[in-house]
């Protein structure tokens, strides 16, 4: 075992700003040689990492990619939009999105990438850019008998919203079905639904909304006998705001998404969707 003390680890941490465990590993890897350990940390992109920890990473970029029934959306976070729109940052999030499509999303941080791992590559980018850079949300859809499509909203030169949508009950080779899938992905990006259908809304959330609407109606002085009907109307409004199939379609606001979907036939369904917006949970 290399000979070094806790004081050596603390000294290396002070010199480099890296985390204690990283400094310990660096000294182990370099036989206790402080200068070599400093270089090891630099190569790993870990020097200065602890100084960046705790700084808000509320900016970033997302990318989407779809290939042969497999789609992915990947988010990379950082502190400023200036960094997020940089070429290196956008390139990495794009490459990671394609990696997820090709190889899956499980254990992405530990996946081999560019001679190291994804996690080490992200850390190296953080060191290069001087910001707290991190791997954000990652989603992957795959289907054998439906259509997966995606949409990316670009703002300030980088993707800020990424969406995946999966349709079922349609022909994968049908150009019209593919166009509808893409239009629905665009709709999800714009309208931000939370659920596919009314049946997907948790019962406790519906009960909570109903209680709020009842109290609101009474506080407004509505007649007691009219309150049940008023509450039903307000719940319908809640569903219209939050349920994809009940929302007005963004391209044709007089038509619901459900009605728009019917243009593909009675069997067409939205199986699932995901929406990732930078800066939102």
Q: Can you describe this structure?
A:
The protein starts with 5 loop residues before the first helix and ends with a strand. The mean pLDDT is 91. It has helices at 6-16, 20-29, 34-44, 49-52, 81-84, 87-103, 118-129, 175-191, 203-219, 227-242, 257-261; strands spanning 59-67, 70-78, 112-113, 116-117, 134-142, 147-155, 158-168, 248-249, 252-256, 269-277. It has three domains: 6-52, Ubiquitin-associated (UBA) domain (Helicase, Ruva Protein, domain 3); 59-196 and 247-277, 2-Layer Sandwich (Tetrahydropterin Synthase, Chain A), CATH 3.30.479; 202-242, GTP Cyclohydrolase I, Chain A, domain 1 (Orthogonal Bundle), CATH 1.10.286. The radius of gyration is 25 Å and the shape is elongated. Strand 8 (248-249) and strand 9 form a beta hairpin. By secondary structure, it is α+β, with helices and mostly antiparallel strands. The strands form four sheets. The protein has a three-stranded antiparallel beta sheet with strand order 1-2-5. It has a three-stranded antiparallel beta sheet with strand order 6-7-10. The protein has a two-stranded antiparallel ribbon with strand order 3-4. Helix 1 (6-16) packs across helix 2 (20-29) and helix 9 (203-219) crosses helix 10. It contains eleven helices and ten strands.
């Amino acid at each position: 075992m290399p000979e070094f003390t806790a004081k050596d680890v603390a000294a290396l941490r002070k010199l480099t700003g890296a985390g204690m465990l990283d400094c310990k590993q660096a000294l182990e890897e370099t036989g206790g040689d402080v200068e070599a350990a400093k270089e090891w940390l630099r190569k790993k992109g870990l020097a200065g990492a602890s100084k960046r920890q705790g700084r808000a990473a509320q900016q970033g970029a997302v990318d989407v990619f779809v290939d042969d029934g497999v789609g992915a959306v990947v988010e990379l976070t950082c502190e400023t939009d200036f960094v997020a729109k940089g070429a290196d940052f956008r390139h990495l999030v794009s490459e990671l999105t394609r990696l997820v499509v090709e190889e899956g999303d499980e254990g992405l941080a530990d996946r081999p990438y560019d001679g190291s791992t994804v996690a080490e590559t992200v850390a190296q980018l953080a060191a290069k850019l001087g910001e707290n850079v991190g791997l954000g949300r990652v989603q992957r859809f795959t289907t054998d008998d439906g259509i997966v499509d995606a949409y990316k909203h670009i703002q300030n030169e980088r993707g800020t919203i990424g969406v995946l949508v999966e349709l079922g009950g349609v022909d994968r080779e049908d150009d019209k079905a593919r166009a509808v899938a893409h239009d629905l992905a665009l709709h999800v990006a714009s309208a931000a639904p939370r659920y596919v259908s009314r049946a997907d809304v948790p019962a406790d959330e519906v009960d909570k909304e109903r209680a709020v609407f009842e109290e609101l109606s009474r506080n407004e002085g509505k007649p007691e006998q009219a309150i049940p009907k008023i509450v039903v109307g307000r719940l319908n409004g809640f569903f219209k705001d939050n349920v994809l199939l009940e929302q007005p379609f963004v391209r044709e606001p007089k038509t619901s998404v459900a009605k728009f979907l019917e243009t593909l036939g009675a069997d067409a369904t939205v199986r699932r969707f995901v929406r990732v917006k930078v800066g939102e949970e």
